[in-house]
Design brief:
It is a single chain. The protein has helices at 16-28, 48-53, 80-86, 101-106, 111-123, 136-140, 144-156, 161-164, 185-203, 205-208, 221-228, 245-252, and strands at 5-9, 38-42, 60-63, 93-98, 127-132, 168-171, 213-216, 235-238. The protein is α/β, with parallel strands linked by helices and 255 residues long. It has one domain (5-252): TIM Barrel (Alpha-Beta Barrel). The longest helix is centred in the C-terminal third of the chain and has 19 residues, at 185-203. Bound molecules: 2-phosphoglycolic acid. Residues 9, 172, 177-178, 216-219, 237-241 line the site of 2-phosphoglycolic acid.
Length: 255
């Protein structure tokens, strides 16, 4: 059985008071959650501490980025070891995004650097949520499968089987992120099945069937059920709609 996951990527949104209000509101409405999916929130790193320290907060937490280096003269960076160290006692911080399309586009992160970030996280006992997805031009020129294949192979396929099993994959077509345009459930299912087939070819069916692949890109309460009903879609990476308790809970309950 693959883990069902709903992860909220808060990006560079919400200040401390808003983070606290979200948590208090979410906690007071926990009885509305009808799904057994794993719930993750990925706040800005500076608020990880606020989130970890909140009482009764048993939702999993993740960072949005980490350095590809272990330590050293890399001003402004946060290492995977620091993330691990940060939460050593409470063990709530389990995940870190790698290769979100905004990191690829605005910070020029390429597959080889992302492969190093994946390595640092796994070495430090954290689970990478590895993002992939094509831009509109790739889909229009029908090179979207090749593009995603290269992202998966170059970012992940150096891993040993046991290491790959620590990874969650998020397929996010770039043209659907924050645009209100969602991939149809057929388009999303087709790409998820393709990604799973790549893993099966390299690592075998049992590994391929154990890895959760999330869909991201304008996922909202209105379309989440149809997406989550697809056989190879194991949950969602939610941006805008995860910033409001109401819509986030509705998406969680779409399973
Ligand atoms: P969106 O973002 O749901 O706002 O489209 C998804 C993401 O970027 O992870």
């Amino acid at each position: 059985m693959r883990k069902k996951i709903v992860a909220g990527n808060w990006k560079m949104n919400l200040l401390d008071e808003e983070v606290i209000n979200f948590i208090v509101d979410f906690n007071s409405r926990k009885n509305e959650i009808e799904s057994d999916s794993e719930i993750i929130i990925l706040p800005a790193s500076i608020y990880l501490d606020t989130m970890i320290s909140m009482p009764d907060w048993d939702i999993k937490i993740g960072a949005q980025n980490c350095s590809q280096f272990n330590n050293g003269a890399y001003t402004g960076e946060i290492s995977a070891a620091m993330l691990r160290d940060f939460d050593y006692d409470s063990e709530n911080l389990h995940y870190c995004l790698v290769g979100h399309s905004e990191r690829r586009e605005y910070f020029n992160e390429q597959n080889d650097v992302l492969a190093e970030k994946v390595n640092r996280l796994i070495e430090n006992g954290l689970k990478p949520i590895y993002c992939c997805g094509e831009e509109l031009q790739h889909r229009e020129s029908e090179s979207h499968f090749d593009w995603v294949q290269a992202q998966i192979e170059e970012g992940l396929f150096h891993l040993k089987e046991e290491e790959l099993k620590q990874v969650v994959i998020a397929y996010e077509p770039v043209w659907a992120i924050g645009t209100g345009k969602t991939a149809t459930s057929n388009q999303a299912q087709e790409m998820h099945a393709f990604i799973r087939s790549l893993i099966a070819k390299k690592y075998g069916d049992s590994t391929a069937n154990s890895i959760s692949i999330l869909y991201g890109g304008s996922c909202k309460p209105e379309n989440a059920s149809e997406l989550f009903d697809q056989p190879d879609i194991d949950g969602g990476l939610i941006g805008g709609a995860s910033l409001k308790v109401d819509s986030f809970i509705q998406i969680i309950n779409s399973f």
